[in-house]
Amino acid sequence: VIVTVTLNAALDVTYVTPGGVRPGTTHRIRSVAQRAGGKGVNTARVLASLGEPVLALGLAGGASGAELRAELDAAGVPHGFTPIAGTTRRTVAVVDASGTDGVTGFWEPGPQVTGEEWQGFRADFRVAVRDARAVVLAGSLPPGVPGDAYADLVGMASGAGVPSLVDADGDALRAALSARPALVKPNAEEALRALGEGPANGPHHDGASVHQVPATGEHGCPADGPRASGRGSSPLPLSLARRLVAGGAGSAVVSAGARGLVACWGGRLLAVAPPRVISGNATGAGDAASAALAVALARGLPPEEALSRAVALSAAAVAAPLAGDVDGDVLAELEPLVAVRDLT
Amino acid sequence: VIVTVTLNAALDVTYVTPGGVRPGTTHRIRSVAQRAGGKGVNTARVLASLGEPVLALGLAGGASGAELRAELDAAGVPHGFTPIAGTTRRTVAVVDASGTDGVTGFWEPGPQVTGEEWQGFRADFRVAVRDARAVVLAGSLPPGVPGDAYADLVGMASGAGVPSLVDADGDALRAALSARPALVKPNAEEALRALGEGPANGPHHDGASVHQVPATGEHGCPADGPRASGRGSSPLPLSLARRLVAGGAGSAVVSAGARGLVACWGGRLLAVAPPRVISGNATGAGDAASAALAVALARGLPPEEALSRAVALSAAAVAAPLAGDVDGDVLAELEPLVAVRDLT
């Protein structure tokens, strides 16, 4: 089974309005939809839809936590969220049916988590990881969860011989690197922040942590050569992937939006782009990629297979309207066409 | 006991953002608050805070219905909502803490109500009205509830000798008039729509219903004389109040926002304005006025006392930040200062 962890899970609510959002006015919503969300939950949903054994863990509480669990039951996604006294956050996405404004989002803050609740989660995770073939640790940390939570969980998984994939931002990702996760999968902005070079995480960020990342790692990739700046590749994500591995990750996959993925994996620099541009809802595309990468970790697949499957699943997720869903036709069409380029 | 009816009750959610709403972007919410809402619920909350025996009825279902009940329990507002399979709507109000955008609202549609559920409510109402001294029927009707619901309930109350106050819009108010409620309390726009003269209720509205309103009523008020166009009064609301009584209401109170209330009551035209302008949150101000008017109906108070209390409570509600709350200091200050003018 693949275990996903979503510590700051959400109930994702979608409102459709006939027209755009006009600040300072009242909008009558035409339709309301809600489903369980958060990066790890989206990944679990994709895995379940692929028939892959999965268990979605995390923290959930309050009325919205109960709705989250009920929706996962209805969707057939096995789950075992640890209860908390706080209320699972909602995200409200207001979709303009006329297409003018796109999506206007309102994200509630995560619930406050007590030390006891965090220990309760750790105990649940320790039990679940015994049967796991891979774990996915994804998304932000709610208030009260220690900043090194992902390092802690990666260590527990490693102790049980289970590889971890970490998909996180900034501080949470940087802290995870010290526990040497098998794979990290941020996007370029998140990787920049984790390496201490992006727009500051907080008001007092001083960028000093970049100096703590060592220059070479166990499976380090060579510095970007001439081939790395060739057609369609992006030197920056390649460099970030290389440096995340230098910083502690076994392998690193960095997503660059519609341009696809780059990776430093097994000492090689690899780049994969979708064979054609897919338009649609990019929310959840990275989580679908994580699903493919987690399967690869669980089965020990070679990086070419992992990355081409990740790009195809990601594109199939963009083609499906809701995060966590994939368009089977797009997946079947694209998967054989995705090519991996070795830029080492 | 005063029975309030809120057929389209809501869970009112307030989001505070540090800055304005920017369409097409994602906003991280700083704080979330939620409470039971809807016009009748707000009125019940004011009555409970005044120590007045009250029972809040209505329809509620789903997770948000459970949250609505729990919040009323916590607030000490006695309630007996009839369960429905659908989910109680939420209203989301995004408040810009910087003050630039004011409040941006998103109102979910009301739940679909089945015929069986509506009959269940009628049975609950029939029991509750036996012990009632007045009933307040307030707000919109959710899908599935008959358009003449308020007329039906006014008739049931009248059959038990209990006077009704109806605070509704357009079609629902117009339909209620036929059952001769003791008091109606729309604002000027709602009264215009009920009389078939306002901006159309729907795309096929033809304004014909204005001809169905008879020219005189049992307690009819004289046509607006020279005094009715004097200082501070507004000829339009006076005319609307008069015509609502001509249409079937025992008395009519029409609110004109910060300018106060006008009434056709016991054959007299009356106007009441607050002694000073109160700034704050106007949401719920009309529901506070309804609370005062319901007390007057229950006790048979003279119109001057009812109206001056209604204006003072309404101003005290504007001064309190949340709908359904009143500022006790403002109430104590204003109540002795409110003067009722007879414009007959």
Q: Tell me the distance between the termini of chain A.
A: 33 Å
What overall geometry of chain A do the principal axes of the alpha carbons give? globular
Strand count, sense and closure of the main sheet of chain A? Answer: 10 strands, mixed
Q: How much strand content do the residues of chain A show?
A: 15-25%
Q: pLDDT average of chain A, as an integer?
A: 89
* SSE succession of chain A: EEEEHEHEEEHEHEHEHHEEEHHHE
> Numbering strands along the chain, what is their spatial order in the largest sheet of chain A?
6-5-1-9-10-11-12-13-14-15
Tally of separate helices of chain A: 10
Count of individual beta strands of chain A: 15
Quaternary structure classification: homodimer
Please give the share of residues in helix of chain A.
25-40%
Classification by helices and strands of chain A: alpha/beta
Largest interface: A-B, 31 and 31 residues
Pick out the low-confidence regions of chain A.
200-217, 228-233
CA gyration radius of chain A, whole angstroms = 19 Å
